[in-house]
Amino acid sequence: MSVKIRSRFVAIASISCALVVSTWVGVQLWPAHAPRDYEECAEGATKAASSKDERASQIAECDKQFIGRRKPGGGYAYYDFLQNRRFDIAGPNPTPKEQKSFDEEYIIFLNAQRREAITAALAEKQRLRAEAAFQNDQASANAAIPLGAPLAITPNNARVAGNGSQAARSKAQRCDDASLSCSWTKFSAGIKNIFGAYAKVDRP
């Protein structure tokens, strides 16, 4: 009976020693503290991973755990890909107050984007309207100018036959009494009439 008790005691003692040893080894292998930010977590994953796939998986977990990144001059920054900008944060993860500020900035960003889109649409509409009005004006101007017959080009010094003699006769008929030429013409005509009268008297 005592042999059985002794053997059980030895077995229990052996199991207890094994548990103590395994616990001690586990404590030695477990890191002294959890990673404080993404950079430290990624560094530990790089050292502990036995393959590239395992390393990529652990770094992805680090990315989920910490969304902030260290800044070269100290502190942390959060990159919001929706706004394509960075925000300074106090720790490796934004606080609820900082997250609320990001949301408010995102609303302002959306409003600005909407205003820009509306302004661009109005400018394009005005451009198309002005272009259509210009084309209509050009079409109206072309329709208002009819195509006439070709013009005949005549020389400036062309003289019409018969006009010179007719003008001279008209000038002789409309002779001014005060001019010397008209007086001489009338005097010659009177002399001819006198000689003609004498000739008729002398004729038998």
> What is the percent of helical residues?
55-70%
User: N-to-C SSE series?
Assistant: HHHEEEHHH
Rg calculated over all Cα atoms: 61 Å
Measured between the Cα atoms of the first and last residue, the distance is 217 Å
Largest sheet: 3 strands, antiparallel
Question: How many runs of DSSP E, i.e. beta strands?
Answer: 3
DSSP helical segment count = 6
* Main sheet: strand order: 1-2-3
Low-confidence stretches: 17-31
Structural class label: mainly alpha
Mean pLDDT: 74
Q: β content, as a range?
A: 5-15%
Overall morphology: rod-shaped
Description:
The termini are far apart. Helix content is 67%, strand content 6%. It is rod-shaped and about 160 Å long. It has a three-stranded antiparallel sheet with strand order 1-2-3, with no helix packed on it. The protein has six helices and three strands. The chain is mainly α.
Q: What is the strand and helix layout of this fold?
A:
Blueprint (H helix, E strand, L loop, with lengths): L1 H28 L8 H11 L3 H14 L3 E2 L5 E5 L4 E5 L6 H49 L18 H11 L6 H23 L2
Antiparallel strand pairs: 1-2, 2-3
